[in-house]
From TrEMBL, chains A, B:
InterPro entries per record: DNA-bd_HTH_TetR-type_CS, Homeodomain-like_sf, HTH-type_TetR-like_transc_reg, HTH_TetR, MftR_C
Species in which this protein is naturally found: Streptomyces aurantiacus
Sequence segments annotated as region (Disordered): 199-245
Gene3D superfamilies: Homeodomain-like (1.10.10.60), Tetracycline Repressor, domain 2 (1.10.357.10)
Domain HTH tetR-type, chain residue ranges per copy: 18-78
Sorted UniProt keywords: DNA-binding
Compositionally biased region (Basic and acidic residues): 211-241
PANTHER family hit by this protein: HTH-TYPE TRANSCRIPTIONAL REGULATOR PKSA (PTHR30055:SF226), HTH-TYPE TRANSCRIPTIONAL REGULATOR RUTR (PTHR30055)
Residue ranges of DNA binding: 41-60
Protein name: TetR family transcriptional regulator
Entry's transmembrane regions: none
DNA sequence: CCGAACAGGGAACTGAGTGCCATGGGGCAT
DNA sequence: ATGCCCCATGGCACTCAGTTCCCTGTTCGG
């Protein structure tokens, strides 16, 4: 009863649920799979949905947007997830968890996701549009990492490269799942792929270290399951790290603040 | 004369030089910088170029294509470069060299590249189009790596991740150069960025061991290192790559040889 | 000299996306 | 209850990208 199903209330991103959107998406996908994306005009969609043409463009800025109706909200969710991250979170693991949010969105509607995947495979215009969507995710990850790596040597470079690698790994696992028709284990595939990246770029970053070595840690970490952003799970990394040995190799005359910074990022902790 | 200046001869990518293309590109860019991309219609362009509207779409499949007139040829060049690679080439280094082909294309016309960069920054439609172009480069690299990694554990995953990382690093350096207005040392910036990736993914991790490449950094590229905002001026930072700080985190209980190996790789030496 | 081939031009059409205004219903104040 | 206002929707007309069809001139080959 505390929940008022008022549709006009829509100020929040997660809230607005006028059936208009839903019926437009449904009508659009029905026609897209029936006769193809490019062979379907917006007029066809609104005719089937029984609404005016002008209303379509009130709910979707373009015809392509109707194919990705949930990404805007997911991007907002990811941005919030990263914004609410504390300085104690290990950066690379954090962006991996952020990527898992996207996977979760796909996994919520397997049938829909697979249908959409087949569409985007075929239609170049949709593929391009998907690229722009993925790019925004990647930029969100990179911006977060840039903040975490600020002041570090090659900080923005590292941020950009890691963000790209995480997105590529995530997409590799995701597409493998989509190709299987949604029958394989999406979580496992993506976790495996992300672990791969974490081994190459993680805090115990050993350049050239072969990812074929043992996984240091169980992959299925936090956020995939996490409805909660605020559980104090910050400390379990700390416990996990306690039995590590830290070797610091420092150049003679290197400023001390730099040494401290490197150690901090390596451990994923913060000095304050 | 073996050279026939016939314009209709155009079967080769490097050959076709009908002035039509050139004048269209010139007219388009003049208007784009004058009054903006979206404020310029195709009719404006063809009017300035003094040709018929239909001819525009004979030379460019879309309005966006006129902004990237050279990428099609560059992609073909890259594809050929990778196709002609032998099994003796180190894969990661090879895709880095392939990426350098793109840089070279940009560097051939600095003024043009910078102008275009400023355009694509502003116009979302062009940014999206550029993403699709970059995506094709990335796919070319990934396909090559997939071939080289075929049969390996997680071969396609590694291929995709490395391709994404190489592209991200290349773009990081490239954009840094573009942001400088084409005044910094593009080669040095991109080399530095790519070296970064090679250190993370190179098989034997031998950064300086590749005899085909010059030393990655020369002292003249100080401007390119402007990102170092804290400017550790006390330390001459061009001292080869084990300057600053390297941190190695190892698990307690790990065999000592592994710790030593990690330190060695962190320092950029070979373990054997 | 004739015709095939082809580069270019032009008119008309489709379809996406936008601006403007009318309508209609539901809440709110008087 | 009445009148007012907000806002969601619908309808119309317009711009512009991209395409289809067809016309025109030139050039080359017979």
């Amino acid at each position: 009863m505390s929940e008022a199903p008022r549709p006009g209330r829509a100020a929040d991103v997660t809230n607005p649920k006028p059936p208009m959107r839903e019926s437009l998406v449904a009508a659009a996908f029905q026609l897209f799979v029936e006769r193809g994306y490019e062979e379907t005009t917006v007029d066809d969609i609104v005719a089937l949905a029984g609404v005016g043409r002008r209303s379509f463009f009130r709910y979707f800025p373009s015809k392509e947007d109707v194919v990705f109706p949930d990404h805007e909200g997911c991007l907002a969710e990811m941005t919030a997830f990263l914004r609410d991250s504390g300085p104690t979170h290990e950066p690379v693991g954090r962006v991996c968890d952020a990527a898992r949010l996207v996977l979760r969105m796909y996994a919520e509607n397997p049938a829909f996701s697979v249908q959409r995947y087949r569409l985007t495979r075929k239609v170049p215009g949709l593929r391009t549009y998907e690229l722009s969507v993925v790019w925004r995710y990647e930029r969100a990850l990179a911006e977060y990492l840039r903040g975490r790596f600020a002041g570090l040597r090659d900080g923005t470079l590292r941020a950009d490269v890691i963000a790209a690698a995480v997105v590529a790994a995530h997409n590799n696992g995701l597409r493998s799942w989509l190709r299987s028709g949604g029958r394989s284990d999406a979580r496992a595939e993506v976790d495996h792929a992300l672990t791969h990246v974490q081994q190459a770029f993680g805090p115990d970053h050993a350049p050239g270290a072969d990812p074929t070595r043992e996984p240091a840690r169980e992959p299925g970490s936090d956020a995939s399951r996490a409805e909660d952003r605020n559980t104090g799970r910050d400390a379990d990394r700390h416990a996990d790290r306690d039995d590590d040995v830290v070797v610091v190799v420092s150049r003679r005359g290197a400023p001390l603040w730099r040494v401290v910074q490197e150690i901090e990022t390596a451990l994923g902790r913060d000095s304050d």
